[in-house]
Every structure is written in C-alpha cells, then in structure tokens.
Design a protein that fits this description.
mainly alpha; rod-shaped
Length: 107
C-alpha cells in the first residue's frame, strides 16, 4: 500500500505542477495580449516619447534665447542708425493697402 500511496501522491504532485505551469503560461499570454493592446492604443493616440519631447523642448529654449539675442542686436543697430522702434500696437494692426487706381472712363 505504501508504493501505491507514493505513486498516487507523485501523480497528484505532477498534476499540480503541470497545472501551475499552465497557469503561469496563461498569465504570460494574458500579459502579452494586454501589453500589445495597450501599445496599440497608445500608438493610436499619437503620443511622443519622453526623449523626443525633451529634445524639442531644448530646441525651443535655444530658439527663444537666440530670438532674445537677435532682438537686442536689432535694437542696438536701430539705436546706432537712429531708427525709432514702432510701438507694438502699430505693428499688430493690419498692413496698409496701396491706394486703388481709378479706372479710366473708357474701360
């Protein structure tokens, strides 16, 4: 009876081990499916990666610094030439149109 009990326990242990392995395999499959679905969903959102965002932010900061530097340079050149800077309000208004030509009476 001892051999039969051992064999039965061995079979039961093997069955439980196989069941645990199957459960782990199902878990891995589920994780893979969820991960791929999440990646597909994120790709559809057209999000940028953090590295790309940081690069663009750095480029924008450099551009702002360059613009400030150029503004100062333009202001210095205008001051040197004696050109008065336009008020900001005038620069924002619509550009003036050239006067219209009157059509000759014969046309």
């Amino acid at each position: 009876m001892t051999q039969t009990s051992n064999r039965m326990f061995d079979e039961l242990a093997r069955l439980m081990t196989d069941a645990a392995n199957v459960a782990q395999g199902v878990r891995r499959e589920a994780e893979t499916a969820v991960r791929s679905q999440a990646e597909r969903w994120i790709a559809d959102l057209d999000l940028v990666k953090r590295e790309e965002f940081d690069v663009v932010r750095e480029m924008a900061a450099k551009t702002v610094a360059e613009n400030e530097k150029l503004k100062k340079r333009i202001a210095a050149l205008e001051a040197k030439l004696g050109i008065a800077e336009e008020p900001a309000e005038a620069a924002e208004t619509k550009p003036k149109r050239a006067p219209r030509r009157k059509k000759p009476a014969g046309e």
